[in-house]
Amino acid sequence: AKEAGKNAFEIFSTEQSGDLRGRFELEGDLHYAVQRSELELHYQPLIEIGSGRVRAVEALLRWHHPRLGLISPATFIPLAEESGLIVRPIGEWVLAEACRQTVAWQRAGLPNFRVSVNVSPLQFGREDFVETVASALAFSGLEGRWLELELTETLLMRRVSESARQLARLRELGVSIAIDDFGTGHSSLAYLQQLPIDTLKIDRSFILGLDDSPQGGTRPLIQAMIAMGHALELTVVAEGVETEAQLQWLGQQGCDLTQGFLLARPQPAEKLGHFLQAGPTV
Ligand code: C2E
Ligand code: CA
Ligand code: CA
Ligand code: CA
């Protein structure tokens, strides 16, 4: 594997491998990744803009391949979805591990924060998904209110009434729901109001667009998303915040939380523990 920089994320992609056989081999290897303990979760803080407090951490999956090194989720999640492994064992493992780690942080006396877990449409679409979440909570001892699930708007909008029913069942566990990559899919405002959602995560592409022009760019779109989120009483998160200028502007607009390389990169649980012990960052 290539040697990666300290925080850099050196990636093997299937495009680079070129051939179909590489893809099949990778999918084969993925079958054993959980039992061989090759998967790991990194955690990236979601920080309250006013106070600098960590309100949540997002669990982001990493695969340490024995030969290829660190492989990006952008590469292997599609493979995990095609093969169904994203449901079992990978998705179940992610949920269980994120809950376990969060309880460990709580027991270590850190201030409470939520853990946010990405959920594939394949997981969410299953009848037994709510039971899987319930057992992850029960087994770890984590209270439901400390778990948030991240879903994409495209998924939720595809079959609204089924989504609403599934979300209501999750709500009964105390679990909260975030819409991930907001603004990139197709949300119907009417449906958005009907769904029991807590958090809206503005996609990174809009934050990048802030730099396009000093006054215009994506500013009006971001302002509209923040206003809409607040009108629906949602917590609004800006993803992919990389510069002070972006952070400052988002703060002026009343955006609630920031997530991005500027304040904290995704990092292994142990490192994050140190970061959290150090206290507020802004
Ligand atoms: P996502 O859910 O939108 O996660 C945010 C991605 O943005 C992460 O990439 C994170 O490392 C990256 N990021 C955060 N801050 C910044 C920033 O300031 N600048 C830039 N350039 N990037 C930033 P990552 O970890 O490579 O994950 C990629 C995607 O893989 C995630 O996008 C998510 O869709 C998926 N994913 C990750 N873990 C899981 C998982 O456990 N289950 C499922 N189903 N999908 C996952
Ligand atoms: Ca996410
Ligand atoms: Ca996202
Ligand atoms: Ca994304």
Describe what this molecule looks like in 3D:
It is a single chain. The chain contains 13 helices and ten strands. The protein has 282 residues and is α/β, with parallel strands linked by helices. An eight-stranded mixed beta barrel has the order 1-2-4-5-6-7-8-9, surrounded by four helices. 37% of the residues are buried. Residues 1-8 have low confidence and may be disordered. It binds ligand C2E and calcium ion (3 copies).
**Which small-molecule species are bound to the chains here?**
ligand C2E, calcium ion
- Tell me roughly what share of residues is in helical segments: 40-55%
Q: Which class best fits the helix and strand makeup?
A: alpha/beta
Largest pleated sheet: 8 strands, mixed, barrel
Low-confidence sequence ranges: 1-8
Shape: globular
How many distinct beta strands? 10
Organism: Deinococcus oregonensis
Protein name: EAL domain-containing protein
Task: Describe the secondary structure blueprint for this structure.
Layout: H1 14-17, H2 20-33, E1 39-48, E2 54-65, E3 69-71, H3 73-83, H4 86-107, E4 114-118, H5 121-124, H6 129-140, E5 147-152, H7 153-158, H8 160-172, E6 176-182, H9 189-194, E7 199-202, H10 204-208, H11 219-231, E8 235-239, H12 244-252, E9 257-259, E10 267-268, H13 269-277
Parallel strand pairs: 2-4, 4-5, 5-6, 6-7, 7-8, 8-9
Antiparallel strand pairs: 1-2, 1-9, 1-10, 2-3
Helix pairs in contact: 2-3, 4-6
The protein binds ligand C2E and calcium ion (3 copies).
Quick structural gist:
With 282 residues, the chain is an alpha/beta fold. The chain has 13 helices and ten strands.
